[in-house]
């Protein structure tokens, strides 16, 4: 009998973390490596937020808190949802967790039974299917193609729903593609969901404040208020406020669901870090001015990367609406051989050869449920992005 749980056989380690780890090992060994695999802003947490954390420490706010967050943070989250999304929640409808990932996991653990299905549009964030599997559910992947801008169509959503469907996990702008749904596109999906009252919506809005050009963010319960009572609206401070390591995510939803999630969290991690919670209060209540500056920076980087990648032989790179990722196709590279003799059989072989031969770390598309593609995070300097994309151009030019 195995000592380890059989449940672990259903899941795999995070490919994004694995690629970042491999890149780090090569860099530590003295190789010239540029890692474009991690989804993390490269600038520091704003000073007012750091000051709030220091003040919390000085004031002795270092004790246990309520399992799912202090009332001050819940009130700040309620104000944020009303201000940004026109969604009215009370503190009893708010859950605060150790990052958005824990919020999603708590909700799945609190609701899924064996045989329950969860519809996940692909390309998807790598953790969605594995969290569903860990919670005992069955992920049902609905592929959104490059021809539709990596966005699910109403017909595809309709076809994926069965009488066993419990959740749709929705993410806009998307990790890994940066694709965002307009109000009209999202309304077409919510019209489908209105015909299936047993399906709940888990809306991952983590990249809400990182959108570009004329694109305007919207969330499912905002677009279709009739879905409010079966929507969990998830967000956090990691991306917009450069607070990845602070580990604060949150959600608004029906009181019964939030209470069930609280029960799960109370028997796992208990409360998120008290200092991080007070820092998040300042993030949400304090100045928001730097968000527009950050958006402009990321948009410039997006345009730089899209232009350079589309100049590479065999690569087609769509222009994303938000987040800080691109998800180019390498369909025209498959079947070729690299300059050092590696056969490019799939996108994993492409990413491995790219790292070993040029020192550029990206994440292969199969990790996100769609091939042949790869994901680049452009949350790094213009100089590194230019260097990395130039090396990718040279790598592709050497394919025969």
From TrEMBL:
A Pfam match: Aminotran_1_2
CDD domains for the chain: AAT_like
EC number(s) per entry: 2.6.1.-
Reaction equations catalysed: L-aspartate + 2-oxoglutarate = oxaloacetate + L-glutamate
Keywords: Aminotransferase, Pyridoxal phosphate, Transferase
Domain Aminotransferase class I/classII large: residue ranges: 32-392
Family: Belongs to the class-I pyridoxal-phosphate-dependent aminotransferase family.
Quaternary structure, from the entry: Homodimer.
Family matches, as PANTHER family: ASPARTATE AMINOTRANSFERASE
Designated name of the protein: Aminotransferase
């Amino acid at each position: 009998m195995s000592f380890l749980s059989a449940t672990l056989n259903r899941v795999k380690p995070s490919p994004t973390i694995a690629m970042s780890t491999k890149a780090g090992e090569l860099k530590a060994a003295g190789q010239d490596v540029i890692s474009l695999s991690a989804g993390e802003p490269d600038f520091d947490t704003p000073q007012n937020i750091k000051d709030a954390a220091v003040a919390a420490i000085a004031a002795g706010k270092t004790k246990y808190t309520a399992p799912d967050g202090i009332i001050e943070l819940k009130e700040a989250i309620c104000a944020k949802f009303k201000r940004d999304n026109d969604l009215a929640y009370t503190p009893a409808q708010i859950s605060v967790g150790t990052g958005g990932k824990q919020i999603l996991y708590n909700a799945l653990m609190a609701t899924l039974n064996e045989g329950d299905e969860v519809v996940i549009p692909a390309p998807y964030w790598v953790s969605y299917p594995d969290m569903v599997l860990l919670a005992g559910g069955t992920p049902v992947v609905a592929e959104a193609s490059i021809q539709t801008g990596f966005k699910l169509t109403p017909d595809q959503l309709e076809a994926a729903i069965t009488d066993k469907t419990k959740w749709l996990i929705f993410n806009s702008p998307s990790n890994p593609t940066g694709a965002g749904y307009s109000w009209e596109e999202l309304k077409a999906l919510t019209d489908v969901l209105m015909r299936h009252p047993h399906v709940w919506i888990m809306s991952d809005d983590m990249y809400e404040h990182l959108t570009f050009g004329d694109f305007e963010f919207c969330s499912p319960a905002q677009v279709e208020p009739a879905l409010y009572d079966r929507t969990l609206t998830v967000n956090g401070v990691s991306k917009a406020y450069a607070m990845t390591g602070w580990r604060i995510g949150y959600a608004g939803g029906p009181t019964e669901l939030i209470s069930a999630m609280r029960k799960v969290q109370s028997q796992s991690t208990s409360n998120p870090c008290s200092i991080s919670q007070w820092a998040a209060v300042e993030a949400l209540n304090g100045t928001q001015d730097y968000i527009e500056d950050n958006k402009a920076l990321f948009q410039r980087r997006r345009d730089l990367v899209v232009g350079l990648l589309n100049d590479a032989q065999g690569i087609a790179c769509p222009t994303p609406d938000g987040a800080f990722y691109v998800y180019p196709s390498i369909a025209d590279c498959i079947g070729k051989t690299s300059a050092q003799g590696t056969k490019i059989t799939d996108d994993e072989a492409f990413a491995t050869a790219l790292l070993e031969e040029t020192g550029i770390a990206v994440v292969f598309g199969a990790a996100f449920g769609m091939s042949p593609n790869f994901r680049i995070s452009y949350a790094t300097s213009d100089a590194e992005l230019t260097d990395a994309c130039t090396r990718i151009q040279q790598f592709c030019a050497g394919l025969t």
